[in-house]
Automatic annotation (TrEMBL):
InterPro entries: Glyas_Bleomycin-R_OHBP_Dase, Glyas_Fos-R_dOase_dom, VOC_core. It comes from Streptomyces hirsutus. Residues 2-114 form the VOC domain. This is VOC family protein. Gene3D superfamilies: 2,3-Dihydroxybiphenyl 1,2-Dioxygenase, domain 1 (3.10.180.10). It holds the Pfam family Glyoxalase. SUPFAM superfamilies: Glyoxalase/Bleomycin resistance protein/Dihydroxybiphenyl dioxygenase.
């Protein structure tokens, strides 16, 4: 299993202000679903930050997202390790397969692969 990118997720109602603030650092909007917006560096597209009001289909808002090339393998590893699965493995309508797991610090991690 390979990690493709790691992205912090900021829970906020200030999407426009965040877009402007991170825009000053060179980030540009690459996705906006209304409840989540992702900003990326044009020169290094995997350098990203997301701003989320609330997760559309999960009971909690994750703190970070880790994109992997094999989400099923990641899910099996986390489940078998005894880690707390916060949101089950599932396909989402916006083209990803994901699950949430709680890390040892109490942070919720969205582990995801694109379909």
């Amino acid at each position: 299993m390979a990690v493709r990118r790691v992205m912090p997720i900021i829970q906020s109602e200030a999407a426009q202000e965040s877009r402007e603030f991170y825009g000053l650092l060179g980030f540009e909007e690459v996705m906006n679903l209304g409840w989540i917006m992702t900003l990326a560096s044009p020169s290094s597209p995997t350098a990203q930050v997301s701003v989320m009001t609330v997760d559309k289909t999960a009971p909690v808002t994750p703190d970070m997202s880790i994109e992997v090339d094999d989400v099923e393998a990641a899910y099996a590893l986390m489940r078998d390790s005894g880690a707390e699965i916060v949101h089950p493995l599932r396909d989402e309508e916006w083209g990803v397969r994901r699950f949430f797991v709680r890390d040892p610090n109490g942070r919720v991690v969205n582990v995801v692969s694109h379909l």
